[in-house]
Design a protein that fits this description.
Blueprint: H1 12-45, H2 51-71, H3 77-84, H4 87-110, H5 114-131
Length: 137
Amino acid sequence: WPHQHRPGRNPPSARTMQASWTLVAALVLPGALLAIANVAALLWRDVPSTDAQVTGSVLLAIGWSLFLLFGLDLFGLGRLISGLGVIGPVALLLLIAAADLLLLIGLLDILPSWDVVGDAIERGVRDLARSLPFSGE
């Protein structure tokens, strides 16, 4: 990531900024995975999306876009966020954490019980194994 430059040469305040950007980056990936899981569950269950899913997706898209804009220093925004100090990455961290939480709530809201999910996965794997030309069944 662009913010991961030789931490030993940075002053202490810059090291704090670097750590906060690392936390922001660590929340972007789970949010993306939760968004994919939500879409898969919506397609599987054929149900309409919830407000939590829509809001979480919008917040995640905004947070991810801002993270890229600031991280890649597009349009000079990297200097702007550096001028804010730690509050900029912390605000972005809270935005992405809220998005992750909303996506998790939305996913848990539409998923059936874990027994149904486990049975569906087991049936899917069994059907896939039977369709292979070398399976012997």
